[in-house]
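Support request, please re-run this one:
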Amino acid sequence: MAVRGRKEKSIDRGESAWHAFIDDLRKLRGTATLSDIGAALGYSAGHLSRTLSPGNTNLTEDFVRAYAKACGADPEEWAQRRSEALRASQPATDQPTVPDPAHLSGQVPSNTPETLVRKSQALWRHPAVALAAAGLVVLGSMEVRGWWSGDRHRSPSAPTTLEPLAQQCRPDWAPVAQASLSVMPCIERGADGVMISVKYKAIPQDGTPGEATVWLWLMYQDPQMIKDRTMHLTRNESTLRRCRVQLDNGDQVQTCGPFRLDPPAKKGTYTTASSARMHDSVYPPGWEVPEFSGTQGGVLPWKSTS
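Re-run finished. Output below.
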């Protein structure tokens, strides 16, 4: 399990359930290298190694699903194991009785962030509070088209939309020297499709600010296509978008997009790919080359709504 010659630090599985889970994630790839899995996910081996650290408790469910799929494992099983490991690693907290709102008016609360978090977690575990919250969730979801578990309607005339998913972006900036800027591609599930965008900022430099073109498109992360370097099969020309942008000296972050795309017809993992150059054209340089992949962003697991 080496990362370009560097041996990964061993994990003390006995320290916590989360440590054991991360250790199992590392072992999940078997004989495949971090470079192999990273190529399938659009990340470098070094970034993937840092992500699979027991100190990283912000490991998202979407990442775990995509990583498990790239390793040939069941994404659902590993998403469940992630949730269980997080719960098992949280410190135990006494469950308080449900407070009387009238009584609360006479209390002087402790407003430190740590105290507020502990109190909110404890209250959510109380059966009465959980039951009330569940009722609100059910009522709030009656007009929403369920993404994972089917459709729910208040009436035949109620609107049907997909539940949005938080924006998933590349975790670091990717410099594009040919355009004198850095890019951070992002993807998210919108109300009625997929939203793609690219954050960009000029690479600090002396001289007169200029213009550049930023391209972005939807990429289907098929492990076999990526392994075979048939990147032209992972993209659809109809999803290609571009922005002609003005570069300013400094690090002011701007965004190309977001652009709404129709829901993909094929289930799988998708990402936003990007490229940039100073000169403008309909297609990014290299578009006609089968190996051209661009710079990838965050991942979005996509499932059929039917």
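Residues 141 and 210 are 48 Å apart (CA to CA). Confidence is low (pLDDT under 50) at residues 1-5, 93-117, 119-162.
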